[in-house]
Amino acid sequence: MIPDEDILERPVPIDEDQAERVHLRIRRKLPGRRLDKYLQGRFPHLSRTTIQRLIKQGAITVNGQPTKSSYEMCGGDLVELVIPPPEPSEVVPENIPVDILYEDEDIIAINKRAGIICHPARGDQTGTIANALMYYSTQLSHGSDPFRPGIVHRLDKNTTGVMLVAKNDEAHWRLSLQFERRTVQKVYLAAAHGELQLDADTIDAPIGVHPVVREKFAVFIIRNKIDVAKEAVTRYEVAERYRGFTLVKLYPKTGRTHQLRVHLSHIGHPIIGDAMYGGRMVSQHDLTGGGSKEPLLPHQALHAWRISFKHPIRETPMELEAPFHEPFKRLVTLLREYRGR
After folding, report:
1. For tag attachment on the chain, is the N or C end more exposed, with fewer CB atoms within 10 Å?
2. Annotated catalytic, 104?
3. CATH number belonging to domain 185-339
4. How many angstroms separate the CA atoms of 329 and 327, rounded?
């Protein structure tokens, strides 16, 4: 799951051909005035979060140098900005199939398929879960972001499984509070390379943006790097063992971006198909010695299997499970049949 606080770690996509370049000369010192707040006042169409992300990725500089959102400007400072073009003002409903696991007057639970992102982002404004939900339901929460109607939490583009959606604002903030307080219990299933030595363990390794590849995340264990990372804790249990592979239950205690993928890679057992973090594609031929050489999954074998929470309005305990999609199910079937112990 991807929490809102980690959005600051993600760079804002910028089309160099459409971006606006602005130069501001600060005439006098502005004591106590943060750079991000000052710029939000000058550019009201940009959210403060977007401005902070632009500062973090170096698209906003002061006197030609990278800076911080908290910087207090001095007279004579030259602030230079690369501003992306404005986003569309609404999410367009699209007739995209949605696999409904549960629905009542307050919430919807879906079984997300692979290859679809949760909500629009610049350069990819259609074909998302948000577009599908806008078509499916006329009643969705507004939340704090017009581009995420109903969406309380997120899954990576190629992670499948259960995802909660709010149909009204009260349900939205009550669910969000449960995620914030970490009272929502999530269980993922991943098919990983190699045979894990322990039947169960906890991975406690802080995660931050990769120092070279901005779209990746990495574990930071060097003492002087800990300040750029955030606490990340995952408990795991071995569900099934195979020759050369392991089916693992994952219980995230925190919700950092790519956390489960990074953590399994960190302990030397990347997820099958997760090329970004060292996983390899696996085919029927790889597992059985015959048959197709096409990958069984063209993406990471990671599935959000179960979620436990309190109903946001009724306050009754709920537990929902998302069945495997066919490619993941076939992978596990072949592992059991041809690589079982």
Report:
1. C
2. no
3. 3.30.2350.10
4. 5
